[in-house]
Amino acid sequence: MSTSGSVSKACFVFKPKAGKRKKKLNPADYFVDESGARTEATRARCETYQILWEDMNKDIEALQTDIHKKVFDDLVGYVGSTHPGFCLGEEIQHKVSSNEIPTAALVTGVNMPDHGMIFSNLTSLLQDNITPYVARLQAKDCSAMKNIMSKVIMQFMDNKELLDDDDDEVQVKRISPTMPVLCGWYADSVKRSQSPNKSPSKKRKTSYGQYPPLVIVMEDLEGFPAQVLQDFIIICSQYLSRLPLVLVFGIATTVTAVHTLLPHSVSSLLCMEKFQAQPSTEYLSQVINKTLLSTKYPFKLGHRVFQLLLDIFLYHDFSVVNFIRGLQFAMLEHFFNDLGMLCCGVKLRTSRIRAMDHRELEAIRKTSSFRRYVELQKPQEQRDLLLNDKLTKDVFISLLKDLDSYHTMCYPILHCLHALTCGLPRHPLGKQLRELYSLVLESNVWETQGYKDAFNLLRLMARDDLVSVLGQCVEKLEGWTESDVSDVIMEVQTYMAQLDSLGDGSQEEQEEPEERPKERLSKTTKLHDLQNRLRESAKQKKKLTKYEVLRNKILDYLDEIFRTHLPSPTTLPLHEVYYYRVSTLRRHMNAAPRAAIQTALSNPYYYLQDETLKSEDGTIPNTAPDVCIAYKLHLECGRLINLYDWLQAFVMLVHSGEENDGAGTSKQNKVDEVLQARFIRAVSELQFLGFIKPTKRKTDHVARLTWGGC
Amino acid sequence: MAAGPPTVFGHPTEQLADLYSSCPSRHDLVTQLLALFGQNNHLSCPRVFLYGPTGSGKSHVISSILNTLKLPHALVNCVECYTSRLLYDHILNQVALVTPAPDNDYTNYSRCDNMNDFVKTLRTIIEDRELQEETMYIVLDKAERLREMDMNILPAFLRLGELTGCNVCVVLLTEIVWEKFRAGTGMCEPLVLHFPDYTKDELLEILSSDCPTGYTKDFYMSYVNIVLSVFYMACRNLNEIRHLALLNFPKFCEPIKKGEATEEDVHKLWRNIEPHLRKALQTVYLREVSSAQWERMQEGAATQESSSANIKTLTGKVNMELPFYSKFLLIAAYLASYNPARTDRRFFLKHAGKMKKTVQQMKRDERASSQLLGPKPFPLDRLMAIFYSIVEGKVAPTANIYSQISSLVTLRLMTQVGSDDQLDGAKFKCTVGLDFMRSIARTVNFDIIRYLYDFV
To answer: Per the record, where are the segments of Basic and acidic residues compositional bias (chain A) (predicted)?
Structure first.
């Protein structure tokens, strides 16, 4: 922020805050009850949250390395094979005829926030398997040739592997960052790693080759200045005979980005191989499968929160990292709530319910789903449920058990429904499992139009397709070991066997009824007769073939299964214990700073909650902060604002509440200095917020930077 | 100037034979240079300027001469020397035979900050090494970079012999002509030598030296001939053709390995390889595939015969996925870049009325189609205004939307022009092409052509 260009010419003093160190807060310190005190209950909630999140995070991290496993393995293999004949001997030096740098172009997709994680995984993988020498470059550090060279050489030579057994610390700062230095260092480090007097007790994690390649990873190739990148590649290719360099380009867009950055003469120095990373949508599906569509974790997202996180992912950033962060945030919020207490394993939950006091029970009784449940009971039971704590506890335990068993059945069946419908034309229930899951979270899925459409389409399905789709269903169901879906599998398999056994018989029967009317038709000669016959036959309900009967039977069965196992969780009592449904998440995850600022300026009451600031008709009272008044006034102006007029209006407004006596008129000529200072300050604040800027187009004017207003 | 006598300028015959064989097709130039350099104790031409296109063998010839004949020299690529100090250090280190190593704490021969120090130090080194009697060669590759350094560097290097008082020969290698170097004063005219492009025959001769083991030279020659016949029109760069020749050779030999043809079966081999070379022609200079990947692709092509589609995916057909709003932001940026601001009313206002292009306007547009002129900068406000009018539904102006703009800038799909102060009304340009834009727009069902002024 340049203060020098400020509208107000003044001197700004920033005193260093001496000795005021931030007190580091423990996450547990945030868990407090309404009165702000930490109690046993808040501590328990915090612990449950931490354990749950750690487990979940571990799973997600495992997934992260898994998802890119294939492309990473390929890439690591490629890097390992790039310099097969490399040798530092004198006589070989001229042998390397081609000066092409082996380059791996890793197309990562545009999910910028996730890149850091991808590359640190890749780096550690390379360091474990191929070479200790990996340098990571980011465009923001490499604005000039000098920076890029020193970054590379620092990272290579600062290598811990090199320094751990020496006492002579290399002082990189003093060394000029040039390639000959790197050559000297590399030759030396190779020699040292070969020398036999190295202490045998010190074992490396893995044995690298004799000449481990020097890998330079450029994480965001698009961001590099073209000239710097070109020069760097030219230099690297010069030293290829003495340094086994390998480049790894992280490309977010397409491989053509390389050609927009590099001219022919430079790109011909590269020998590129392309590696396509998994799209982040795939990764997201797996994360959702692992965390939300699993009985392992009791915590779930409600429909609106889930949809919000999905929207942010699909519409804004494609970033799984942000999705996970959102998930974590939702979880944290959930555990702030009293209900979070019970979001844990069965045993702990039961003991916690047993230990609950009356106040805590009341909190749970107030949940809307439980009240709905109570209303459905008989009057006597209703009273018991509301008054008898002991009975309520038992009911809670059994209800939550029901929820658990609902989850165990829901997910396999959900997968089954997805397998059944994902191949249908125009995807009435969504192409991805997450879309279907979102539908289920929202309402009972069988009441949606998509479900009806899907079943109508299924009822028209040919036999081969149906068999294959059912096969997929069975496959999906068999993948679930922790839930008991063997009945469903058995049933579906029986149906499939029946479909198979229909064999050719069904086709024969199919043909028969068709032929008879044909014969009859051919005999008739009169047009009128023909019309009548056709009308009759149309009226006659077409007799269903065996296959069609069986198909309907199968689909009716499946429909029944879905209706029993896939009700929306919102219809189940006490679902609030597991499902986080508060929609304040939007404010946190998808912040709108501009809207917030404008609200604050146009309606200060919203944030300050001061009764004197309340106004109905949108006018601003003169008690409002100066900056709000200045803002309100500036909204009435055009692109250029005359500062003097603005000041006059400001003074008028501030004085409007006071008695307008003779002193007011005399003030019009000469403005009170304090008021003027207040005005200048308000204007500078507006400039700082980005609403106006100084302009040279007209003297004593400032330019508006926002459009709209009154 | 024949290269016949047993010792030319005091160099042993074997070394000369080596030299000539390592520089095929450049015998004349080698002889000429040797004549210029003369015997090692002769005072040789103090400055030589060699220029020619890339891949014409300038650096190769010079380094072969210096290395094979074991002449004292320093060979520096000016790209590496982004400051003048580095240039001095590199030359001095090489002349003094110092290489930075752990033994000397990676230090240079001596600290040298300006031309004056450099000249002095150079003289001391030459005296220390007792090379006063010999010529010291200092080769500056990519010499055009010297022009961007301090003003005094180029003139001083051209007069290095005079300044040091030693027998120094400075050789400048570059791709551009000497006339472009003339700037400022104190330039000494060097001796200019031109390296012309290799002719087709010369290319043949050089390429034939790559012959892989296991094949006769004639056979490889005939292959190279075929390669040249396809590529010569498109590309004359030696390195590129060499790369292509080696890349496709295994494919060429495939029928022989399978036993379907013999080495003499030239016609059959030609018919086999020709379509593959034509395909390779599309990717000339691109280097998007390594040789291993190319082979895999060729194998894939053989099995499924839909290779054209295969190549397309490799040469970067648009297959980029962007978040939903990023796509609309990019479309808005494109529209703002290619439509004149005065036409925004017509495209984005609901009741702007049908405005027709007048004849005069049409003529003006014809002269200056914005598709030909390229993108124009636009302020952020305009981008957002267009974005909100084309995007469906209500989109809150959240931080996420704004961060997507900067994300697009880092991806180089848009660039920021002018000041980098966000408050000062940052201006942007959209840098993607129409084809790319259309494919992006298609994925969100947006008919971009209808909104482009040039196509109305």
So the answer is: 515-525
